[in-house]
Amino acid sequence: MTMRLWKIFGGLKLAGHKTMSMEDATEATPLPKILTLPLKQHIGHAAEAIVNVGDKVLKGQMIAAAKDYVSTPIHASSSGTVIAIEERPVPHPSGKTTDCIVIETDGEDKWIERVENANYRQLDASALRNIIRDSGIVGLGGAGFPSFIKLNPGPGNMVDTLILNGAECEPYITCDAMLMQEHGRKIIDGLNIMRHALQVERCIIAVEDNKRAAHTMLVNALQEHEAEYIDVVQIPTLYPAGGEKQLIKTLTGKEVPSNGLPINIGIVCHNVATAAAVADAVLEGKPLISRYVTVTGEGIEHPRNLDVLIGTPLNEIIELCGKRSEANQYIIGGPMMGFEIADTNIPVIKTCNCILIQNKKTEAEFVMPCIRCGQCAAVCPAQLLPQQLYWYARAKNFDKTQDYNLFDCIECGCCTYVCPSHIPLVQYYRFAKTEIWAQEQEKKSSDIARQRHEFRQFRMERKKAENEERKRQKKELLKKVSGKKDSADDAKKAAIKEAMERVKAKREAQSAIAKNTDNLTEKQKKEIAEIEARRKKAKEEN
Ligand code: SF4
Ligand code: SF4
Fold it and tell me: What is the extent of the structural domain holding 275?
């Protein structure tokens, strides 16, 4: 059945330059002496080293753990000894350095014990996502987003279509095409695992119509699988038909909303190489420790695809393919979306799909003022107004760039390619995005600092109020206690007074008794005198 396809806006028909690197079968590169594994090879937080210098590690052993939800672990690509954990240069347009684990290989290439899950259908979605996360799998199409997250649609999101992107529309790059030709069956295994995790009915594998061999291999592999729920679809060769939003539009006619994600319209999209990595991880217990890399361009004697261990020095694989003496430009990725590097003494990382080596033109292309020709807008696949974005980015009016949907720009470079004034438009958009992110980060940091300050103030005021309340309560208690004391004193005073009065009364009674003796008879007086005399005598005798 032929599937209906939709046309995307804009785009360019570019010379492919693909056949030069597709003549030979893909070969694995020799085991390097040193592997340099950056802790950050993906979008999100860097992983955290869980080994120390001097530790012996095995191939496939986790050496850095995911630090956050949007993060993935890193694994040793071969067995050996950790000889350093330090900052080293990594593939980045700025030539920046980042923390890396450096392994000296022992030549044994000895694997850790692997857990194979051939019966993955008995596992639930969460268990499959955990295997995929713990295997360090990220999007291998270039973006490097942790793949397990895309397999977790989250509550309230229904997925009806799973797309595998095998379009590989950028000139020169052929690693996905070679993978489809050589490992079509593995890609379909990976697709089936993802389908099981997402519980989705409809699956599409998209391949550009200039990759006939890859298409044939996938169709043959599908027949073996008897997977009638999967469509392998050839899409027109057009740059950037492989952009995620453009591919979704071509295959389904649906538009991903501005600033939205494919999941918002019930679609999940993965790269074909990511699917193969998922199959390796689940079925064979192999984490992501190698990938296909295209080494190509006019500056290379023997352009081809290589199966490279992550962490292998880039200059070793360039040497393997033979660099022409006049070659003077090194690009990671393709000519449209890749970035130039000055130094090849950097490692291959998970997102490194191509090394393009060219003879850069020496004559300078002078940048001229914008002539408002509108060619950039005519080719923009995101239907933006590149010249307006350029004005506002140049004027550092970043609010306005956002009003013109800067973040819908996929940095495809079509506008720059057609601009007759040679304005490096994409560079302005990247600059604007970086500035906006930095400002947001700064705002976030200052918001956090303000919240901390406000919380501290609140805590201090609360403490002060609590102290005052405590003091007030104490005072009240003291007052109550002293009130009771006063009444106790009064009672005591009254008792003393009473006692004194009793004593006084007794004395008066006694004196009254004394007075009564005056009225005694002579006889009584005599008897008393005798008693007194006897008492006196008895006292003396004693
Ligand atoms: S293509 Fe270049 S010159 Fe033409 S409108 Fe766009 S930015 Fe201006
Ligand atoms: S780089 Fe951005 S603005 Fe330029 S054509 Fe591509 S999507 Fe449009």
Answer: 19-30+116-358
Residue 161 lies in a domain: yes
Tokens of 341: 């590097």
The answer to whether residue 195 is domain-embedded is yes
Judgement on whether residues 141 and 224 belong to the same structural domain of the protein = yes
Number of domains forming the structure of the chain: 2
Residue 503, CB-side half-sphere exposure with 13 Å CA sphere: 6
Specify whether 167 is located in the same domain as 277.
yes
Which residues make beta-bridge pairs with 82? 103
Question: The tokens of 500 are what?
Answer: 């004194």
Q: Which pTM does this prediction carry?
A: 0.81
Q: Is 380 in the pocket of ligand 2 (CB under 6 A)?
A: yes
The preferred substitution site among 419, 422, 427 for testing ligand 1, maximizing ligand atoms within 8 Å of CB, is 419
CB of 120 within 6 A of ligand 1: the answer is no
Cα-to-centroid distance, 408 and ligand 2 (Å): 9
Give the helix, strand, coil percentages of the chain, each rounded to 5. 45, 20, 40
Residues 139 and 273 occupy one common structural domain: yes
Task: Looking at the CA of residue 418, tell me the nearest atom of ligand 1.
Answer: 1
Report the CATH number that the domain containing residue 180 is assigned in CATH. Answer: 3.40.50.11540
In this structure, what are the phi and psi dihedrals at residue 132, rounded to the nearest 5 degrees? -65, -40
| Residue 146 maps to a domain | yes
The phi-psi region of residue 474 (left if phi > 0; otherwise alpha if psi is between -120 and 50; otherwise beta) is alpha
Say yes or no: CB of residue 386 within 6 Å of ligand 1: yes
Which amino acid is residue 51, in one-letter code? V
Over residues 235-270, the pLDDT tens digits come to: 999 999 999 999 999 999 999 998 889 999 999 999
Do 177 and 257 lie in one domain? The reply is: yes
